[in-house]
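Checked the freezer inventory, then went back to the computational side. Two predictions to log before the end of the day. The first one is the construct we discussed on Monday; recording sequence and tokens without edits.
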Amino acid sequence: MIWTPRATVAVIVEQNEKYLMVEEIDNGEHRFNQPAGHLEDGETIHQGAIRETLEETGYNVQLTGVIGLYAASAANGTTYHRVCYCADIKDPTPSTELDADIVAVHWLTYEEIKEREAQLRSPMVLACIEDYRDNRRFPLDLIRQL
């Protein structure tokens, strides 16, 4: 049997010391996450990050860097590999059409996110934000689509 991790992307957007976050339903519970999700067949990692942000928040973004690569095993035994980006908003007016499982879009301070730590979708959420806050940035061409 070949082990197959799940390929995911996430995007950190910061404005005025607040982070773009989504509140979503996961197994019947409210969870907080960056705009994030699974890659779709045929799309690049960059395209997936832009698409997920638009679908989950309504904001069209311009990727500005790679924060890091993360791996975590979930309670269900699935291993997730996440590429986390940082980005700027291209259009200040978000679309109102969001994924069905998104309850709300929030702009939260780091302290407000820490207060919700028990409700974060995974440990990767806080790890990505903390790496961003530590100024970890890699150029977009770190990831080459062949």
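The second is the one RB wanted added to the comparison set:
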Amino acid sequence: MSDIPAIVHDTIKAERLLKASPARVFAAWTDHEARRRWEPTPEGITAEYDGHDFRIGGYEKSRMSKDGQILVEFETRFIDIVDCSRVVSHVRAVAGGNAMSCSQHTAEFRAVGEQTRLTCHEQVAWFHGRNMRAEHEGGWSVLLDRLAAEVETA
């Protein structure tokens, strides 16, 4: 048992003021085709999605692959959804058949005048004993940059 890595827990917060209404930001966050445009995928990596059951209790599976080889799979379950206000989901990441992490994601959409303050929290547990905070913060930053480009264009 001693060779099993300790679980590393962390909470990551990412926030952005977007020049778009909460309805527009929520629509981009929840629409499957819009998400394909703005979700971050590293250069040379292909993202594929199976099922987009966007409802409380709904399930989605996605994967990232390179040259036909699956690198990581994501299993998402939607826990709570309040139209134009919040989305809460549970995400499990699997690589090589082994669970790498699980996390709860909370996205809150709040009107600030004609803009939206999007606040995202990720409460994560990494199972391999390594804190990947910097990588996840970088991912959230890219995600919010790309989402801003999606919703702030006319």
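For RB: Strands lie at 8-18, 46-52, 59-66, 69-82, 86-95, 98-112, 115-126. The mean pLDDT is 93. Let me know if you want it refolded.
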